[in-house]
Amino acid sequence: MKWKEGCPYNPRLNVDVEELYIYDTTLRDGEQTPGVCFTKEEKLEIARKLDELGIKQIEAGFPAVSEREMESVKAIANAGLNADILALSRALREDIDRALYCDVDGVIIFIATSPLHLKYKLRKTLEEVEEMGMDAIEYAKDHGLFVAFSAEDATRTPLEDLLRIHRNAEEHGADRVHIADTAGVGTPQSIYYICSELRKHLKRAHIGVHCHNDFGFAVINSLYGVMGGARAISTTVNGIGERAGNAALEEVVMALMVLYDVDLGLNISLLKELSELVEKYSKIPVPVNKPIVGDRVFHHESGIHVDGVLANPFTYEPFLPEKIGHRREIVFGKHSGSRGVRAKLKEMGIEVSDDILLEIVKRIKEAREDGIEIEDKVFRDIVEEVLKSRGCSK
Ligand code: MN
Q1: From ligand 1's centre to the CA of 83, what distance in Å?
Q2: Which pLDDT score, from 0 to 100, does residue 278 have?
Q3: Residue 84 pLDDT more than 60?
Q4: 118 in Cβ contact with 124 (< 8 Å)
Q5: 287: CA distance to ligand 1 center in Å?
Q6: Å from CA of 328 to ligand 1 middle
Q7: Cβ distance 330 to 343 under 8 Å?
Q8: Could you give the percent of the chain with pLDDT greater than 90?
Q9: What is the mean pLDDT of the chain?
Q10: Separation CA 60–CA 335 (nearest Å)
Q11: Could you tell me the residue ranges of all domains in the chain?
Q12: Check whether domain 21-282 has CATH 3.20.20.70, yes or no
């Protein structure tokens, strides 16, 4: 059955769907949202749900952070999940040893490459940093790990340096290289450009994109990265993460499906539930109008919209909410029309004449404009009052 209605003008994504995948970092970058701290049990539960969704790779944490973090990552790696479990690692052998202790399948080795980070943060030369990176990659590969190498602040690194270092990383055995838009300063055009240049310089390594949402561009930048040749997309549930967060998993997945007709084969009926789980444990509230999973993104109030949706949901919805475990709701208020009210009355087993219906609609609008929210109880009271005043009883 049809469940979505996209725009026929959307271009096709020039990608091999079989090769495209997500590595989710809710448990690492997501947990780095200021104020967020998951317990081991919470991390495990989120990891299980991500696995149930069908995510290919889960970045479970950063073992160097603490002993407990290390134990959490180890527990996830040993939970028997289908997903490959990755750990974040600095370009240091001791960090890779910690990852090995955790029994993970792979590591994301990161080191900053931009002049800004080299000068003010690392206080190292690019040559020193490159040497550290290559040593770490070799060490991790010698120990049988999947290795992704991430140039932190890639979007502010001179292209020739970026290309050389990533090519070097590939030659040292990296399975994937990341373009990390660490400060969220890339645009769709620049991310596309960097990825497509990088694609030309690599032989076999995949490209991953890790985008931040400082300007609300994380999702679209990720998709342009894919158009430029990236094969792995970094996401977090609800888009949580450092500062304005990362590319939201649910937005990337649904945009690919509905707008670009690319199906990653995920069990999307779990998306709303997963969002609620992460909202609960992160204590970062999901805005009610947050795309895809916000509580009110499938609510309709205005009479014109309600009319349309009752006749055919696609008139005002891009896809059916139940597909992702969400639900549609008709809300009553200032903009309500008679068709929606009649549908609600029918649900309650009440049939009324047209003039009584109009009276009920009028009273609903007035009540809302008096500052009253039209919850079920209020709706019922209004209906009862009108019926009583008209001498009918229900
Ligand atoms: Mn990040």
Answers
A1: 21
A2: 98
A3: yes
A4: yes
A5: 21
A6: 34
A7: yes
A8: 96
A9: 96
A10: 46
A11: 21-282, 299-389
A12: yes
